[in-house]
Design goal:
This protein folds into 3 domains: about 5-100, DNA Primase, Chain A, CATH 3.90.580; about 115-230, DNA primase DNAg catalytic core, N-terminal domain; about 245-375, Dna Topoisomerase Vi A Subunit, Chain: A, domain 2, CATH 3.40.1360. Helix content is about 35%, strand content about 20%. It has helices at about 10-15, 60-70, 75-85, 95-100, 100-105, 115-125, 135-140, 145-155, 165-170, 265-275, 290-300, 315-330, 350-360, 370-375, and strands at about 30, 40-45, 50, 55-60, 155, 185, 190, 200-205, 210-225, 225-230, 245-250, 255-260, 275-280, 305, 335-340. The protein has a 5-stranded mixed sheet with strand order 11-13-12-14-15, sandwiched between helices.
């Protein structure tokens, strides 16, 4: 029986059985054998099999679960029990060949590239008329960005006045503002949906195909817990909403691994330090636009690595969101694993990357092994 068709992995089973696993992004891993106590047991993540040459224990992940949990029943009953523990609610025993092949035979979702190009031209022209105020530069420096990074990604401060004048300039340059989030009509003139009392800076959101498809606003003074807003004009005259687009930055390493995190800065900084392609969800539960990209991701990358904030161990919502995302990715037959680090090394992936870089410098480029680099490198 092909273990790769199940909606869970031998890594999931091992964790249910309280075994210490950490390298699901690799083909296999050696762990301490629960039967003989020697670090000889090999877990093969691709095949869903285990074997310990020291005591000759071995078999499928279903057998591993049954023996360690003392469960007696048919294979179907074992699968049902594992799925129940993992919170997988579908009723299938395992994915049918038809389901496994659906991404092979399905047509990729229609992507409106003309719309993307038009929005990209609008937002680039708009940003070119703005500047980054000195008050915002220290914040970006503190996040780990350099002047080169700031220029590359196009961070700009929100304009405080002259909204209609800015729109007139854009129109004179033949920039169409219709159906572009953030712009709307007021008394027959195009204007911008901003409030001069609401200050902050703008983050261009680059989509998977390299276009600026939206803008996010980082507020200087958050509204309660709200630090970020989308540049949108939904509900206004000739206005429109802005989709929650994932932020993507392409890496300069061998393009076989895509890291998934949450928040633009958590993509920019690790990409700069580690060199891997990173896509950042606008929120851990905002996966609607991301799911549309999975057929393309499946073509472009061999595996994905989910790296949500380190507090997921105490934040049940983040932990559930990660599991939901993992199952979604699995449905597209993409190898998916997770990466975790200790909260003392930083909350977000960007914090962890900066912590790793500092320790690497302090150690003279040696002695830093608990990193995303070592987690990914061995799969290349």
């Amino acid at each position: 029986m092909d273990m790769s068709n199940f909606p869970f992995t031998i890594g999931d089973v091992a964790r249910l059985c309280h075994l210490n696993v950490s390298r699901e992004n690799q083909t296999s891993e050696y762990i301490v054998c629960p039967f003989c106590g020697r670090k000889k047991m090999n877990l093969h993540y691709g095949k869903g099999l285990y074997h310990c040459p020291a005591c000759d224990a071995g078999g499928s992940m279903l057998k591993l679960y049954a023996e360690l949990r003392g469960f007696e029943g048919s294979k179907g009953e074992i699968v049902k029990e594992i799925k129940k523990e993992l919170g997988i609610k579908d009723n299938s025993y395992y994915r049918s060949a038809r389901q496994s092949e659906r991404t092979e035979n399905s047509v990729q979702p229609q992507i409106d590239f003309e719309r993307m190009k038009r929005l990209d031209s609008v937002y680039r022209a708009f940003l070119n008329k703005l500047f980054l105020a000195g008050v915002h530069k220290p914040y970006l420096y503190n996040r780990g960005l350099s002047d080169e990074d700031i220029e590359r990604f196009g961070f700009k401060s929100m304009p405080l006045f002259g909204y209609k004048a800015l729109c007139r300039e854009l129109l004179q340059e033949s920039i169409c503002l219709e159906n572009a989030g953030g712009f709307y009509m007021d008394d027959g003139e195009w204007t911008i949906n901003l409030n001069p009392k609401m200050t902050g800076y703008m983050i261009p959101v680059y989509n998977y195909f390299g276009f600026i498809e939206g803008l996010q606003i980082r507020l200087d003074r958050p509204f309660g817990k709200t630090k970020y807003l989308w540049f949108s004009s939904n509900g206004l005259d000739h206005g429109t909403s802005t989709a929650a687009i994932p932020f993507y930055v392409k890496g300069n390493r061998k393009p076989d691994t895509l890291v998934i995190t949450e928040g633009a800065f958590k993509a920019i900084i690790p990409n700069k330090i580690f060199g891997y392609s990173i896509i950042a969800l606008p929120g851990v539960n905002n996966t609607r636009e991301f799911e549309k990209l999975l057929p393309y991701i499946r073509q472009d990358y061999r595996q994905v690595l989910i790296a949500f904030d380190a507090d997921l161990r105490v934040n049940e919502n983040v932990a559930k969101a990660r599991e939901k995302l993992r199952r979604m990715i699995y449905e597209y037959d993409i190898v998916c694993s997770t990466f975790e680090w200790d909260l003392s090394e930083g909350k977000g992936l960007d914090d962890f990357a900066l912590h790793w870089l500092k320790n690497k410098a302090d150690a003279g480029n040696e002695g830093v092994t608990n990193s995303i680099c070592t987690s990914i490198h061995k799969t290349n």
